[in-house]
Amino acid sequence: MDQSLSLHPATLQSQRVRRVLFAIIMGGSAHTLLCWIALQLDFFRGGDSLFISLFAIIWAGHALFVTFMLLGLNRRLAEPAMILPLMIWSTTGLLVTAAVVDQARLCVMLIFFAIVQLGVLQASLRQFIFLAIYCVVGYAIVLGIVWLYWPEAVDVQGEWIQWGLFAVMVMAVALLAAEISTIRSLLSKRNSQLAEVVERIHDMAVKDELTGFYRRRHAMELLSKACGQASRGAFSLAVVYADLDFFKRINDGYGHGVGDLVLQRFAEVVSRHLGGQDFAARLGGEEFMLVLPVSDQQEACHLVEGILMGMRSQRFAEAPELNVTLSAGLAMLAQGETPAQVIRRADEALYRAKESGRDKLVVGSRNEQ
């Protein structure tokens, strides 16, 4: 299981490659050096030719793992870190060389604990238990094969005592890994819960609980950034001030429960019309601001008219005779204009929409600054 899930995918992939490279270079070099020493001491059955052949295959496998990850093919896997396959391959290399190393067989197998370090904080407990069983049983099979084909090279009692000690050590490491796995799972769960709490607190700070729209302060910060992007030519920017018509009468006549329902329904209608870069803010009781990065004024007007039409079509089971309309003022950001200036023009356009009968959109002129 990969940790650092919040990292950028490219950064995470780079970390995986570095981790695998380090493990292969350190563990593979220790394994190769130990067997080379055994070869020099004449403990490596098969001589130079077998040593070269075996380690050519082992290092070719290591190189295949690294190449697979450098090409990014591991990203298609369920577990892109490839911890278990790499540990199984490395353990298989130990078992094969243990079959041809006399006198130092246990020393070779002890490198298994270095292999374990690669996955102890990443592999699941089930994966680690599988690897431990594979190693211990594989070691027993190796001893059986050596005793069957080269009985003169085996001190049976001594080898099986060593195997027993090795199995106990593996069991102890498995128990330690189980504890680490449990702690890791608890930490992961706590971190997830903490992230949810932080996100909830953040939403409460910047979003209106009833509509899900941004609050005024955060919306003004976002508007300032959007104006900066628009002034650099990224897009045209429309700012819309909107007001639910006669909302106080709705609260007084039908109660605040229906008033809240109207606000929620308005939020639903707006959300259906907004795109990925658009955002809405609740400035007051029934006053709202929409910030719309668009290609031109016509696109912005079409979007707002859709919202007005959507509100006209709303019906409420709690108040069947209630019809809710919306007045809106729209201003397109002019070159060199500040957020405060475009907001003022949108607000003035909204005022004219109300004065001229409500339930309509009025577009502010740029010469009103």
TrEMBL record:
<feature type="transmembrane region" description="Helical">
    <location>
        <begin position="128"/>
        <end position="148"/>
    </location>
</feature>
<keyword id="KW-0812">Transmembrane</keyword>
<dbReference type="Pfam" id="PF00990">
    <property type="entry name" value="GGDEF"/>
</dbReference>
<feature type="domain" description="GGDEF">
    <location>
        <begin position="235"/>
        <end position="366"/>
    </location>
</feature>
<keyword id="KW-0472">Membrane</keyword>
<dbReference type="GO" id="GO:0005886">
    <property type="term" value="C:plasma membrane"/>
</dbReference>
<dbReference type="GO" id="GO:0043709">
    <property type="term" value="P:cell adhesion involved in single-species biofilm formation"/>
</dbReference>
<feature type="transmembrane region" description="Helical">
    <location>
        <begin position="80"/>
        <end position="97"/>
    </location>
</feature>
<feature type="transmembrane region" description="Helical">
    <location>
        <begin position="160"/>
        <end position="180"/>
    </location>
</feature>
<feature type="transmembrane region" description="Helical">
    <location>
        <begin position="20"/>
        <end position="39"/>
    </location>
</feature>
<dbReference type="InterPro" id="IPR050469">
    <property type="entry name" value="Diguanylate_Cyclase"/>
</dbReference>
<protein>
    <recommendedName>
        <fullName>diguanylate cyclase</fullName>
        <ecNumber>2.7.7.65</ecNumber>
    </recommendedName>
</protein>
<dbReference type="InterPro" id="IPR043128">
    <property type="entry name" value="Rev_trsase/Diguanyl_cyclase"/>
</dbReference>
<keyword id="KW-1133">Transmembrane helix</keyword>
<feature type="transmembrane region" description="Helical">
    <location>
        <begin position="51"/>
        <end position="73"/>
    </location>
</feature>
<feature type="transmembrane region" description="Helical">
    <location>
        <begin position="103"/>
        <end position="121"/>
    </location>
</feature>
<dbReference type="InterPro" id="IPR000160">
    <property type="entry name" value="GGDEF_dom"/>
</dbReference>
<dbReference type="GO" id="GO:1902201">
    <property type="term" value="P:negative regulation of bacterial-type flagellum-dependent cell motility"/>
</dbReference>
<dbReference type="InterPro" id="IPR029787">
    <property type="entry name" value="Nucleotide_cyclase"/>
</dbReference>
<dbReference type="GO" id="GO:0052621">
    <property type="term" value="F:diguanylate cyclase activity"/>
</dbReference>
